[in-house]
């Protein structure tokens, strides 16, 4: 396990990601982000997701998704380490879905066709 001090929930998350990272470069990349400190993780606004995605894309944000005053104009499926309440509302209002990392692992154990946005 990592030498840094992480919360129990973060340690459990890292363990879940490691289980999939043995067979997938996508999950190996996500594991690298999971091992960073919370302050080093990216924060991504809804407006950025809107600009960098197409309808029905599956997105992973290895950090926090923030509303940032933007709007989502097409449906996407988003997983992230965390979301602000306003970001969840904006994604749902845009026709998208907020999913857990576990759900993403079930749907796509290899991480194929999932975009990482930082």
Summarize the structure.
40% of the residues lie in helices and 20% in strands. The protein is α/β, with parallel strands linked by helices.
Describe the secondary-structure layout.
Blueprint (H helix, E strand, L loop, with lengths): L7 H14 L3 H10 L8 E3 H7 L5 E9 L10 E7 L1 H9 L3 E2 L2 H7 L6 E3 L2
Parallel strand pairs: 1-2, 2-3, 2-5, 3-4
Helix pairs in contact: 1-2
Q: What is the CATH architecture annotation of the domain at 39-116?
A: Ribosomal Protein L15, Chain: K, domain 2
Number of strands: 5
Any idea of the CATH class of the domain at 39-116? Answer: Alpha Beta
Our count of helices gives 5
Task: Tell me the CATH topology of the domain at 39-116.
Answer: Ribosomal Protein L15, Chain: K, domain 2
Quote the beta fraction: 15-25%
Largest sheet, if any? 5 strands, parallel
Structural class: alpha/beta
The SSE string, one letter per element, is HHEHEEHEHE
- Percent helix range: 25-40%
The global form is globular
